[in-house]
Write a structure and sequence with these properties.
Blueprint (H helix, E strand, L loop, with lengths): L88 E8 L2 E7 L6 E8 L7 E3 L5 E6 L4 E7 L6 E8 L4 E6 L5 E6 L4 E6 L12 E4 L8 E2 L5 E6 L4 E8 L4 E11 L6 E6 L5 E6 L4 E8 L4 E9 L11 E7 L5 E7 L3 E7 L6 E8 L4 E6 L5 E6 L4 E7 L6 E8 L6 E7 L3
Antiparallel strand pairs: 1-2, 1-28, 2-3, 4-5, 5-6, 6-7, 8-9, 9-10, 10-11, 12-13, 13-14, 14-15, 16-17, 17-18, 18-19, 20-21, 21-22, 22-23, 24-25, 25-26, 26-27
Length: 424
């Protein structure tokens, strides 16, 4: 594994495209990504390599960054004018090479430093943490189980807290807002399951519920109210809608059990807007992101619009969308393109929730999963085919991503999770 030192490119870049080098999925979750060779001309990013220790190379001091990055200084305010909470420490976990690596994140520059590697001994995929970040949950796809680890509140060191057999190959993990229930879905077996989390964050008890679902469930997402769970399904072009009973750790079909997605889109991952009233879905098959209104009183999604994630003229048959994330302030949405090998960037209308394209920025080959840092200043994207994680600074005025260092994380990185631990 490399030492994480890489090309620094804090020169602002509006949009740059990378040609397709093939994105066939070999992870075993049935993603069905397509391959091919693109003919789109590449717009290369700057290759200038300023000294990372100089004042012009960091996200804090670069002229392309207009506000303080994660956790800087006192007196920072959020959009309401209220002071932001004091900064803690920032950490990034990556699954790759049959293990989990832990990286500390510099709050001023966003730079990552490898702290430790934890071998699991089998293929690993999705990651999740409870809202208080007491524990990290690792989906061990090679063994159909989930492993739990206590997160040290100072060092982020991981201590085993038990494991549980899932009886399925986990394609996604999440916890409810109480941190008492672990939810998972399986792409190949058309199931979802829920398992209890003990008070200390440990796993080991049998499932509280297991449900058959329509074909190809992917992400499983809990609404901020903790009343609703939604599950996108790829081939039926629908999103399952469930009511969550947080006392029992079970779900039941919502008043309207399914929301329809546009035909042929292949809804995959979903993220709710911080306002709770909108959701954004990465459409795996249609090179697009879809916007939905969400009624928090009924748990009902309603499709509003769909926007392309690739530039005009690019052969969409050579691309599939994977992940989607939103900044904590709800102003910007990003979607990963596998094949075009880019992150699509969008501005969010604060009234309607609709999206306006900001273009694309090139990234590592087959960017399956990525993450926005906890205070919305940086993005970290894993290249499944390169074994690298690319970093970006988010321009706080425009939402455009500026490339930063690229880190060697080991073969086949599948998940990136960023957390902030509170001050101790």
């Amino acid at each position: 594994m490399g030492n994480g030192r890489a090309t620094w490119m804090w020169t602002t870049m509006a949009a740059c495209c990378l040609g397709c080098s093939g994105c066939g999925d070999s992870s075993g979750d049935g993603d069905g990504s397509t391959g091919g060779t693109a003919t789109t001309e590449i717009t290369a990013p700057s290759t200038t390599q300023p000294d990372p220790t100089s004042s012009t190379s960091s996200g804090a001091d670069s002229t392309s960054t207009t506000v303080d990055p994660d956790g800087t200084g006192t007196g920072d305010t959020d959009d309401t004018g209220e002071p932001e909470p004091p900064e803690g420490t920032f950490w990034v976990f990556v699954t790759a090479n049959q293990g989990v690596s832990t990286w500390s994140m510099d709050p001023v520059t966003g730079a990552l430093t490898l702290e430790r590697e934890l071998p699991i001994g089998a293929d690993v995929g999705p990651l999740a943490s409870d809202p208080q970040h007491r524990a990290l949950y690792v989906g061990v796809t090679g063994a159909q189980r989930a492993d739990a680890f206590a997160i040290d509140p100072v060092t982020a060191d991981l201590t085993p807290l038990g494991q549980v057999g899932l009886g399925l190959n986990p394609v996604y993990l999440s916890t409810d807002r109480t941190g008492r229930h672990l939810l998972t879905s399986t792409f190949g077996g058309d199931e979802l399951a829920i398992f209890p989390i003990e008070r200390d964050g440990s796993l080991g008890g049998p499932e509280t519920q297991r449900l058959d679902t329509p074909e190809e469930p992917h992400s499983i997402i809990v609404h901020a109210s903790n009343q609703w769970v939604v599950v996108p399904h790829r081939t039926p072009d629908l999103i399952g809608q469930y009511a969550l009973d947080e006392a029992t750790g079970t779900v039941s079909a919502g008043a309207v059990p399914q929301a329809s997605a546009p035909a042929g889109t292949g809804p995959r991952h979903l993220v709710f807007h911080p306002d709770g009233g909108h959701a954004y879905v990465s459409d795996e098959f249609s090179d697009s992101v879809s916007v939905y209104a969400f009624d928090a009183s009924s748990g009902q999604l309603t499709h509003l619009a769909t926007e392309s994630t690739i530039p005009a003229g690019f052969d969409g048959s050579n691309n599939t969308c994977a992940d989607v994330h939103i900044t904590p302030d709800g102003r910007f949405v990003y979607v990963s393109n596998r094949g075009h090998d880019s992150l699509a960037m969008f501005a969010v209308d604060p009234v309607t929730g609709l999206l306006t394209s900001l273009g694309q920025v090139s990234t590592e080959p087959r960017p399956r999963e990525f993450e926005v840092s906890p205070r919305g200043r940086y993005v970290f994207a894993a290249g499944q085919d390169s074994g690298m994680v690319a970093s970006y600074a988010i321009d706080q005025e425009t939402g455009v991503l500026t490339p930063g260092p690229v880190y060697d994380v080991g073969p086949t990185p599948l998940w990136v999770l960023a957390i902030e631990l509170p001050p101790v």
